[in-house]
Amino acid sequence: MSTLPDTATGVSRRLPGDLAMWFFILVELSAFAILILAFAVTQLLYPELFAQSRAALDSSTGLALTLSLLTSGLFAALAVEQVRIDQSRRAAWLLLAALLTSCIYVVLKLDEYGHLSSLGLGMEHNTFFTLYWILTGFHFLHVLLGMVILGWMAELCRRRAYNAQSHAGMESGVLYWHMVDMVWVLLFPLVYVLN
Amino acid sequence: MSASKVLIGCWLGLAVLSVATVLLGSSGSTLALAASVLAVALIKAWLISDGFMELRHAPIQWRLLLATWPVAMAAGILLAMLL
How far is B36 from chain A (nearest CA, A)? Predict the structure, then answer.
């Protein structure tokens, strides 16, 4: 946890979580940036192919995926607020709610992957689907890791390992989850919506 | 306003903007609509970074650093569409 004074205003400004997590987030965002820009540039080269291939995706499924991730993010953020007022048990329930909401994302995404596979739209079908599988698959792996972190933090909250004085580890875990949300916010329009 | 109310307000904004993204995307495929979709994505990214990640209370350098990522992504995507 770091607290830095803002000398200009005299207000104490604080960066939540551990500094190491913020550097990790920057590294992760850089990796996603390469994939997102690769997708955008390739779309420039094959606009027709991308428009036709994108038609196989359902934007309402994309919307449901977005809402499940954002709702999970809300529950995780509310859990941090509860720990700050020493309500660890309540935080554990909220983290469990975040985990369950993220399960909706996993079920929907696996259903979409299964549907595309059954249509023969696998990674080797064309350039769009190669990038679609790499980009969304990489993000999906991050979601799975985030779910493990949410589950572990829920258990730690149940054991009252976090309290109002010591919860930087929990803030860091929740920050990772919000990073996954932030990536999806850009990935969703690029993959499902923009033509 | 309590921190929890701010978070719920951010979530409501994010949900409404997500629906707006799909509606804008299904309205056509002009460059103006694409720019609007990306502008909505930028507002959503700001709600996540300043609201959920609490960067509104963080040192300004970190706030700017995290704000740069969605802006760079949206600019890159838009530039690729313009070329």
Answer: 10
Q: Is B31 on the interface with A (CB under 8 A)?
A: no
Q: Which CATH superfamily is domain A2-51+64-193 in?
A: Cytochrome c oxidase, subunit III, four-helix bundle (1.20.120.80)
Q: Tokens for B48?
A: 């996540």
Cα atoms in the 13 Å half-sphere on the side-chain side of A146: 30
Residues A124-153: tens digit of each pLDDT: 999 999 999 999 999 999 999 999 999 999
Q: Inter-axis angle of helices A168-188 and B60-82, to 10 degrees?
A: 20
pTM as predicted: 0.93
- Mark yes or no for CB contact B52/A33 under 8 Å: no
| Torsion sign across C-alpha atoms B39, B43, B48, B49 | positive
